[in-house]
Amino acid sequence: MQIEDKKKLREQFLKALRNQSEQDRLIRSRLIQEKLMSRPEFQSAKTILFYASFDGEVDTFPMMKQASQLKKTIALPIVNKGSKNFIPTRIKDLDSLNPGPFGIQQPMFVETSVVNVEQLDLVIVPGLAFDKLHNRLGRGFGFYDRFLASMPEDTPCLGLAFDFQIVDTLPHLEVHDMALTGVIVN
């Protein structure tokens, strides 16, 4: 599959995410939340890196709120657009987030809130599409692939997806593309 095909796939899945009704998105997100909360990886995790959902993605904000109520430490990425990486950062309050690059909500940088990758017990990963082998198609910037490559191999990394985001196979062209531990689907 050529790069142009990957671009077309991204456009197709972005359109599907954006075209779903908000009510359907929230209902499906709630089902995914229930499945996530029942997973052993979630139940045993003390520190979880989530993503701040946007643009039709699975709604992670209620998940973060519930995880926080369960006394889990919540982290979100702070994106560094220049270096194309991000810094996992502990958050205390979901209301104190600000728009970062690409319009994604993120915490303010405070050095004492940075979470080392070895401290993460679970990583929740966004994607436009996932295949049956848990490969993911991201937005094409490589932030998560670079980050996942730095993770200890035994740290579970789970994708969240609506059923229409699951395909049999995805193009797996680049060496840096990282498969996930699993994908939770509504």
Report on the architecture of this protein.
- A hairpin with a 4-residue loop joins strand 7 (129-131) and strand 8 (136-137).
- The chain has helices at 3-19, 22-38, 40-44, 61-69, 143-149, and strands at residues 47-49, 73-80, 85-91, 98-99, 105-106, 122-125, 129-131, 136-137, 157-161, 166-167, 182-185.
- The two termini are 28 Å apart.
- It is of the alpha/beta class and 186 residues long.
- The strands form three sheets. The chain has a six-stranded mixed beta sheet with strand order 3-2-1-6-9-11, with helices on both faces. It has a three-stranded mixed beta sheet with strand order 8-7-10.
- Helix content is 30%, strand content 23%.
- The protein has a single domain (3-185), classed as NagB/RpiA/CoA transferase-like (Rossmann fold, 3-Layer(aba) Sandwich).
Would you kindly provide a brief summary of this structure?
By secondary structure, the protein is an alpha/beta fold. It has 5 helices and 11 strands. β7 and β8 form a beta hairpin.
